[in-house]
Write a structure and sequence with these properties.
rod-shaped; 3 helices; single chain; 0% strand
C-alpha cells in the first residue's frame, strides 16, 4: 500500500513538472515563432500587412503559428504521458 502511494506521488510530481515545463515551452515558442517566421519571409513584413488589412497574410500567418503551437502541444502531452507511465510502472 505504501509503495502505491509513493508511485502516485511520483506520478503527480511528473505530471506537474511536465505541465509546468510544457507551459513554459509553449509560451516561449509562441513568443519566438513570429521571429522565426520573419526569417523565412524577409521581403514581407507580416505585422505591417496585417495592420493594412491584408487578410490573406493574416490567415496564412495565423494558420502557420497555430499549427506550430498545436504540434508543440502534442509533443509536450506525449512527454507528460511518458513520465506518468514511467512513474506508475
Amino acid at each position: 500500500m505504501f509503495s502505491t502511494m509513493i508511485n502516485v506521488a511520483w506520478a503527480l510530481f511528473f505530471a506537474l513538472a511536465g505541465g509546468l515545463a510544457g507551459a513554459f515551452l509553449l509560451i516561449w515558442i509562441s513568443a519566438h515563432l513570429p521571429a522565426v517566421f520573419d526569417k523565412f519571409t524577409p521581403e514581407l513584413d507580416e505585422g505591417r500587412e496585417i495592420v493594412r488589412g491584408n487578410r490573406a497574410v493574416a490567415d496564412y500567418f495565423g494558420r502557420i503559428v497555430s499549427a506550430a503551437i498545436l504540434g508543440v502541444s502534442i509533443i509536450i502531452a506525449a512527454a507528460v504521458l511518458g513520465g506518468l507511465i514511467a512513474a506508475l510502472y
